[in-house]
Amino acid sequence: MLGIALMMYIAWSIGANDAANPTECAVGAGVISVRKALVIFAVFVFIGSLLQGWMVMKTFGGGISKIATLQDALIASASTGLWITVASLLGLPISTTHSAVGAVLGIGISHLLIYGSASINYSVLIKVVTSWVTSPLASILLVVLLYKLMSRLYIGMSVKGLNPSELFKYLLIATLAFSAYSFGANDVGNATGVYLAVIKVGGSDIESLDINTALMLAMLGAIGIALGGFTVGYKVIETVAFKITRLDLVSATAAELANALTIWLFTTIPYVLFGYGMPISTTHASVSAVMGVGLIRGGSKGIDKHIVLRIIASWIATVPLTAGIALSLRILTHMLLGV
To answer: What is d(CA 110, CA 72) in angstroms, rounded to the nearest whole number?
Structure first.
């Protein structure tokens, strides 16, 4: 029951911060209201979680350090959720995956300080730092290609006397749905991974979980994510939709499709080739796509540099910040309880 409760809290916090990832472009272009965008988000996150969420059932924290006790799991989960919640209330889009990695890293460091030994996987930490570059870069490169193609399509339809605006409005809503589906497939594992960590500490064999259990976890995670989107999600949506750059129909559609494709491809292709989907930061992919279209249209003047620097700073701070919270709480509980 504790595992379910922690999973639902993490799912809620993910929805509060990451609901912006599939919805910001349609909202920013003025095609749909925030509430209607969140309804579509909730429906397709649910579908994506059920159909493909089991492909990326993540180990909590990405295996960066060992969760040895229930106390470790509780502190790591609380530290992850706390930072995501604070960032959401501040309207900052951050990586929920990296938040979990940082919290579990903090547990590993605390074990090193308290007991003199810890199993910290430095190769995972290197992969996280590398993903700060690769995930945004892949999204930006894809959005450059898509923006050029869609600009030509829009102009070509105008020349032929057709109304491209109507087509792009429907296309943008369709990309919102696809993006929400991809998000559900890749990111619901951040929530379910908390449950898996708790029951593993309790002595259960997580490798023996059947597909029905995986689907049930994905469904609960999707419900929690949807609730987070409806309660606090509008704050981050407002930041990404309106404050980074000005979005029109073409740029919004290109950015959303680039984001959706990046996430879906990282979820699906590795699973087909290697048997497991690759967890990535859906926030980095989404926000980078929006930054990318801003740069394409107006260079450095096409984006609000103050907002962009603030977002990037929050990305860089996420791992050390959640690590510091978890480290402090773990040492404090050791001092108070002696364990």
So the answer is: 10
Alpha helix segments (H runs only) across the chain: 2-18, 20-28, 34-52, 70-89, 96-115, 122-159, 164-201, 211-231, 234-238, 249-274, 282-298, 305-337
At a CB cut-off of 8 Å and minimum separation 6, what does 88 contact? Answer: 13, 16, 17, 228, 232, 233, 235, 236
| Amino acid at the residue 149 | L
Q: Any residues with CB less than 8 A from the CB of 321 and at least 6 apart, and which?
A: 83, 102
The count of domains in the chain is: 1
- Do the Cβ atoms of 221 and 11 come closer than 8 Å? yes
Contact predicate 91/128, CB 8 Å? no
Cα–Cα distance, 119 to 102 (Å, whole number)? 14
- What's the pLDDT score for residue 282? 86
Q: Structural domain of residue 18, as residue ranges?
A: 2-337
31: pLDDT strictly greater than 70: yes
Lowest mean pLDDT among 6-20, 56-70, 160-174: 56-70
Are 219 and 7 contacting, i.e. CB atoms less than 8 angstroms apart?
no
Show the tokens assigned to 193. 């991974």
Residues 66 and 199: beta-carbon distance below 8 Å: no
Task: Please give the Cα distance from 150 to 333 (Å, whole number).
Answer: 56
- Determine contact, residues 41/25, Cβ cutoff 8 Å: no
Six-digit token pair at 12?
């809620």
Per-residue CA distances from 246 to 28, 211, 323 (Å):
7, 43, 35
Which residues, at least 6 apart from 126, have a Cβ–Cβ distance to it below 8 Å? Answer: none
Kindly compute the dihedral angle of the four CA atoms of residues 40, 45, 50, 53, in this order, to the nearest 10 degrees: 160
What are the tokens at 262?
Answer: 């990046």
